[in-house]
Design a protein that fits this description.
Blueprint: H1 2-17, H2 19-48, E1 59-65, H3 74-83, E2 87-100, E3 107-114, H4 118-122, E4 128-129, E5 144-147, H5 149-156, E6 166-169, E7 172-179, E8 196-199, E9 214-220, H6 226-243, H7 245-248, E10 252-257, H8 258-263, H9 267-297, H10 300-308, H11 313-348, H12 365-391, H13 395-400, H14 410-445, E11 456-462, H15 474-486, E12 491-497, E13 507-510, E14 512-513, E15 526-532, H16 536-540, E16 544-547, E17 561-565, H17 566-572, E18 582-586, E19 592-601, E20 616-620, H18 621-624, E21 632-639, H19 643-657, E22 662-668, H20 669-676, H21 678-712, H22 714-722, H23 727-755, H24 772-798, H25 802-808
């Protein structure tokens, strides 16, 4: 211990004597360790930690549909629950958007209605009261609800007497029976903003196989694999498809571990970022190792003297490793500060609820151990090469070299060349990937959504819990709301829709054209079903390419009308006009109703930014207000000023119509689009930042190598100049010290980029993962930067005064 303490004190004295070297080395390691720790913090919280439920590794989710990724009908769920033997506590959950009253103003909340045994499945106890049971879902039982910790604190001021209190939800009395602990979130991949849970009642829907609205959750029985559960559930699904072809034909079911489902959309992104940031850490280590090698070349005389007076080679190696570990420790301290800032900045840059398990991102023991391991690896990686290089020199060799003109052995030059080549190779990989991701963002930003994104304010207005929630009262109240919003300053057009494109749920319905026989139910085409009010298309900036918008005269007593999109018109009537034709859509009680096409709208992005348009039908709200409980609409306002300011004013304007009407999700369409692209944008920006750091570190390393070579060859260059060598010759000789390693590094980097395209495939759009412009441009950029870094010290070498160079060498 005494030897180590002495080595640490000696290392600190050396660093104080060389503050510039110490600052650069610590900064390089801080960037590498800080960035890698920040990204690992997120990866650990999202991908590695088990979910905060009992037996989380055995929890699965079951989804159904043509792609095996959609909800399940109540009747199908009851069959799965009755017949499945490989899964315990098979439970269902359904989206529940409600208005909570009882305060100064009602608020709109997301929640879930769930099977009574769902909380037993999760094994999570409430912080207060109790959770739900199967008895709570029985007909005639009082309505009960369980609150989230956040809702309890913000709406009920952390009142522990809330248990047993009756609160109005959608105008009905609900008894609060429990409060969940802080941090509880369910489900982790869907409805992540749920703030309350109520019993799921299926008594009046037990025979419903058409209304797919349930997600299924269960726990694998002991000894049962996911594959075995999948096989059993698939067999049940096949039987249902055979027995009920009208609703189940073509359906398949997928059984997925709950954690895998929760992180499926972000796993490849985080793994890619972790790989890129590991490259940054390796470049930082190589950079510092190169600096230590250069520093070691000037310490041969010191080391030789220490060996001559009795120090062993073990003592020398321990001292050198202590110095590098001290640098790594200091870099780690600075890096942890960078990581703390980086994690907070990263989370702040994400849309709320966009990152799965976002609330779990924090530093803990695992992150600390990872940072410590990074520090240890960094210290050993940066110190081992110089230590081994130094001890190869004998005492006699050390005295032969003088402190000014010590030459570097072939092994040292080879080691430094390999480090330069490694930095260049890793930097090429980072630059190439950043270039591909940047080109992807350019392509994504160039997509035409079909409507005008700018100057568009949006807000959801709900009548639930008010006297206007009844179907007969909805049109008149929404008329008043729309008139009030249309009269706001800077508003030039106003309209409303049931589900805003890119921002909400989508309903799909089967349809068929009236001018041909009805196909069997399983062969009927499907369309995305939208319900709009007059003015929607003008407000959205969504052009009508034929016909006209739905009108205020389209009421429940008038001829049913529909506006379709270009995709549907071209699919059903290619090359012909669709206006005036009729299509059959489900009506009240699922009785098909013939609607006349009065307009054709341009195709618009529907469920996400990159998917091609599907068939889409827009029906008039006044003609369909009794369907699907349409008591909430999203209003869209075209503005001539700042849409964010208009969006912020919407709740106040609606309150002037009626204070009981709830406004939620008031934002801008530009913000919604930005939320659609956050994953690609964040990855592109972080990859660009990592590539910039890598390029900077590689340039510094190359500069240091050439500068060190010039310093060691001062005498040689002086002699060459005295014998008539031109400055250009001297420059070429100086640059040649790194030209070979740089070129080899670029070649290796390009090969590594080509071999490592797997992680990139899910991140690109309309760009090849081996995009020649991005990859070739990245290699040329690095070569140009490397030559620039080498040229500066080479230029100084070419301007040496031969007399002074020979005298001082």
């Amino acid at each position: 211990m005494g030897n180590w303490l002495r080595d640490v004190r000696f290392a600190l004295r050396l660093l104080r004597r060389e503050p510039r070297f110490a600052a650069l080395a610590i900064a390089a390691l801080a960037l590498g360790i800080g960035a890698s720790t920040a990204v690992f913090t997120v990866v650990d919280a999202v991908l590695l930690r088990p979910l905060a439920y009992q037996n989380a590794d055995r929890l699965v989710v079951a989804l159904q549909g043509p792609s095996g990724n959609g909800p399940v009908s109540p009747a199908d769920f009851l069959d799965y629950e009755r017949e499945a033997r490989s899964v315990d506590h098979l439970s269902a959950a359904q989206w529940w958007s409600v208005t909570l009253g009882g305060g100064e103003r009602p608020i709109r909340l997301d929640g879930l209605t769930v099977s009574g045994d769902l909380f037993d499945l999760l094994g999570v106890s409430p912080a207060l009261g109790r959770t739900l049971t199967n008895v709570d879902a029985q007909p005639g039982h009082d309505h009960v609800v369980v609150l989230s910790d956040n809702l309890w604190r913000t709406r009920f001021a952390s009142d522990r007497l809330v248990i047993g209190r009756t609160v109005p939800i959608d105008g009905a009395p609900y008894v609060v029976v429990g409060v969940m602990p802080p941090g509880f979130r369910f489900a982790p991949f869907w409805a992540t903003r749920a703030e309350l849970w109520a019993p799921l009642t299926l008594a009046n829907r037990a025979d419903d196989r058409a209304g797919q609205s349930l997600r299924l959750f269960g726990r694998l029985k002991d000894g049962v694999s996911t594959a075995r559960a999948q096989a059993e559930m698939s067999a049940i699904c096949a039987r249902l498809a055979h027995d009920y072809p009208a609703t189940n034909a073509g359906a398949r079911i997928t059984v997925t571990p709950l954690l895998d489902k929760a992180v499926a959309g972000i796993r490849s992104t985080l793994v890619l970022l972790l790989a890129l940031v590991a490259c940054v850490l390796l470049i930082a280590c190589a950079n510092v190792a190169n600096a230590l090698l250069a520093r070691a070349a000037g310490r041969k005389r010191e080391i030789a003297i220490r060996l001559a007076v009795g120090a062993s080679r073990t003592d020398i190696v321990r001292q050198l490793l202590t110095e590098s570990l001290l640098l790594a420790a200091l870099g780690s301290i600075a890096g942890l500060a960078c990581a703390t800032w980086g994690v907070h900045a990263l989370i702040a840059a994400l849309p709320p609820g966009s990152l799965p398990r976002q609330q779990d991102v924090s530093f803990d023991t695992r992150v600390f151990l990872a940072a410590s391991l990074a520090t240890l690896v960094s210290g050993l990686a940066t110190g081992l090469a110089p230590a081994l290089q130094i001890v190869r020199h004998t005492v006699a060799r050390g005295f032969q070299d003088n402190s000014r003109g010590a030459t570097e052995g072939r092994g040292g030059r080879r080691a430094r060349g390999l480090l330069v080549a490694g930095q260049v190779a890793l930097a090429v990989v980072l630059l190439a990937d950043a270039g591909v991701l940047t080109r992807t963002m350019v392509r994504l930003n160039g997509i035409d959504p079909g409507f005008q994104v700018d100057h568009l304010a949006v807000a959801t207005v709900s009548l639930d819990g008010t006297p206007y929630a009844q179907a007969a009262a909805r049109p008149a109240m929404f008329d008043r709301v729309q008139a009030r919003l249309a009269a706001m300053p800077f508003v030039t057009a106003a309209g409303a829709i049931n589900h805003l494109p890119l921002a909400g749920d989508t309903w799909k319905v089967s349809y068929w054209p009236d001018d041909r026989p009805a196909p069997p139910p399983q062969e009927q085409p499907t369309a995305i079903y939208r319900v709009v009010r007059p003015g929607y298309f003008a407000a959205m900036g969504l052009p009508l390419v034929a016909g006209h918008d739905v009108a205020s005269t389209d009421t429940a007593s008038s001829l049913p009308v529909v506006v379709i999109n270009e995709a549907m018109a071209e699919r059903q009537w290619p090359g012909r006009s669709a206006v005036g034709r009729r299509i059959h859509l489900p009506g009240p009680s699922d009785v098909p109703t013939a609607l006349t096409v009065v307009g054709v709208a341009a195709n618009a992005r529907q469920t996400d930014w990159t998917s091609p348009p599907e068939d889409e039908a827009y029906v008039a709200f006044a003609q369909r207000s009794s369907e699907f409980g349409l008591s909430s609409l999203t209003f869209v306002l075209r503005t001539s000023g700042d849409p964010a300011a208009v969006a912020a004013s919407i709740p106040r304007e609606v309150a002037l119509v009626d204070r009981g009407v709830v406004v939620s999700a008031n934002t801008t369409m530009a913000g919604i689009v930005a939320d659609q692209l956050w994953r690609q944008r964040l990855t592109s920006e972080l990859a660009g930042a990592f590539a910039g750091i890598a390029l900077g570190l590689a340039v510094i390393g190359i500069y240091a190598v050439v500068a060190g070579a010039v310093a060691r060859r001062t005498r040689e260059f002086g002699v060459r100049l005295a014998l008539g060598a031109t400055p250009g010759t001297i420059q070429r000789l100086a640059v040649a010290a790194v030209l070979g390693p740089v070129c080899w590094g670029a070649v290796v980097g390009l090969a590594a980029t080509a071999a490592g395209t797997g992680l990139m495939r899910t991140m690109v759009y309309d760009v090849s993962v081996l995009d020649p412009y991005a990859i070739g441009g990245s290699a040329l950029l690095l070569l140009a930067a490397a030559l620039g870094a080498a040229w500066l010290p080479a230029r100084r070498a070419s301007r040496l005064d031969p007399t002074i160079a020979l005298r001082d060498a």
